[in-house]
């Protein structure tokens, strides 16, 4: 008998070698195996005769074998096995490639189900390597698992079947009352059915139950992670110094910026830790809001931290903010992975002593050995790049610090509310004045000559340009421009005598910094880059964004890239270069010409790519889901949010016996999420 913890190698027919193959799929024990769901199904219930099938169609045919198998060695390594079947009307010539095991198992005058593509001729039909099962076996809907080269779907199905047959009842996670309320079938039945459904209806019920369960566990976990919210804090911001900071700026704030600053400062005065999300499209001026809050909190006697997802961005924030704030006597430091160990030690010492007011950095800030004397506010920029755990861990840096997360990712509002749960939200729904609409064009590569000329003209006006390529290095199988190769080519030919810079993710942080600095100062005129410049980079003097092989990028990504220009008051141009022949791809690119609003573009992106891609797990830092889909299953997500609150209000610590198993599952789901 097996139990959920049994290692996969103890299942009959698996053993050490096979187990290794399962490990690669993330399947380690019976528990992970039974939650390794089929990717799709082949419905073998609907059998037809050859006469009912179109030539070339995929079909399921019930047929009797009428001749023994003959073996034909074509050459070394290629043996064909041939035999004939009949469906009662038509003779079907079947060829099997190399699969001796299958060929030897077939018996004349037995009934089989053949699954595959049919080729019809005048009087007979043929099938090449169809899937063949004994009709007597009676499996009707075949699960298709995400397989690997050496472990095919059929083999996986067999192991799952053996495991389920040798496993007692799977412990129930959801209490009877909740199951009744939401019309959910028992977990044991759902799991067995999802692997081997007997009908479409049965399958749907199983799927419903498992999606509900997964999203419920997600919601419970998130609610518990956020539970620190109601606790009081001693960090009370009584005095508003934002005006002083604003007077340091070379521009006046938009109303949206002013409103956001006020909302935050009011929040921080209440005696409860602020938990707020600042959403604003690219270029809406989130950094100035952050600056005003940082300044105010420091003036109230606390330390502050600002975290960015990349070193480039952290460095950029440091350069711009520390320049401003130093005038007002604020001490800022930059802490990233590339800061030398001795320097790091020094910074840490000064942090504990309270000699540093503002620490800017990447994830390195939240490593455990960084301690503050009296941290009051933590701001994370481009929030969607952080994992849930990182958010939690950062908040743990001070007793009960205020946190603000800033994001330019336009996520549909309802989804945002669910993912960010009880965060308050401020929105910058207004761009700074004087911004000109960016002109966007979609062209093919025959325009390169004109594009280069256009860039040269801009450089003559002392402006700068970005050229973005999808790849870093030359690629063998794709005809795509790589940044490295392209930069060399341009600097030797078209732009000989100009200053070109190259920036990509594989460069050392120090090198990246140098290039970025040179570009920001105007020493580099053209920056050839990969998408490392996608987030946050701010060089207002850059007015041209050329994106090569633009069809390779998602719309939201293109929007972020385009957001790198049009940041000053000069007219800016985005040129999407693509030779795609696909009408869909072409239309997708034209969306960029049509819309400038990030939310509109996100909607289009969603329609074009489907939710799976749009919400790649890393985008929001939530655990990987096995069966549910945050957008497709939005209705269920809402229901489970309600349900999770119900459960927690009755049994906050999930101590009751009926909720015990839920607790186990929450721990499991959240154990791996710390990117
Ligand atoms: P994002 O919201 O994308 O992070 P930034 O904070 O980088 O935007 O701001 C974009 C640019 O707009 C920066 O160059 C910034 O100095 C400028 N900016 C911000 N607020 C204003 C404003 N109220 N008026 C004029 N320019 C502004
Ligand atoms: Mg920004």
Outline of this structure?
With 675 residues, the protein is α/β, with parallel strands linked by helices.
What does this structure look like?
This protein is of the alpha/beta class. Mean pLDDT is 87; it is low at 611-620.
Structural class by SSE content: alpha/beta
* Major sheet characteristics: 7 strands, parallel
| Mean of residue pLDDT values | 87
Q: What is the overall silhouette? A: globular
Enumerate the distinct ligands: adenosine-5'-diphosphate, magnesium ion
* Total number of strands: 22
Please state how the strands of the largest beta sheet are arranged side by side.
Answer: 12-13-11-14-15-10-16
The value of Rg in angstroms is 30 Å
The percent range for helix content is 25-40%
Instruction: Report the portion of residues in β strands.
Output: 15-25%
Which residues sit in consecutive blocks of at least 5 with pLDDT less than 50?
Answer: 611-620
What is the distance, rounded to the nearest whole angstrom, between the alpha carbons of the first and last residues? 37 Å
Number of helical regions = 23
Task: Write the SSE topology.
Elements: H1 15-24, H2 30-34, E1 40-43, E2 58-65, E3 70-75, E4 78-86, E5 91-97, H3 100-105, E6 111-120, E7 124-128, E8 131-134, E9 141-144, H4 153-165, H5 176-181, H6 187-195, H7 200-225, H8 242-246, H9 255-268, E10 275-280, H10 286-299, E11 303-307, H11 311-326, E12 332-335, H12 341-352, E13 358-361, E14 375-380, H13 388-395, E15 402-407, H14 413-419, E16 424-428, E17 439-443, H15 448-460, E18 464-468, H16 483-492, E19 500-503, H17 509-520, E20 526-529, E21 542-547, H18 555-562, E22 573-577, H19 583-594, H20 598-614, H21 617-620, H22 634-650, H23 660-670
Parallel strand pairs: 5-7, 10-15, 10-16, 11-13, 11-14, 12-13, 14-15, 17-22, 18-20, 18-21, 19-20, 21-22
Antiparallel strand pairs: 1-9, 2-4, 2-6, 3-4, 4-5, 6-7, 6-8
Helix pairs in contact: 6-7, 7-22, 7-23, 9-10, 11-17
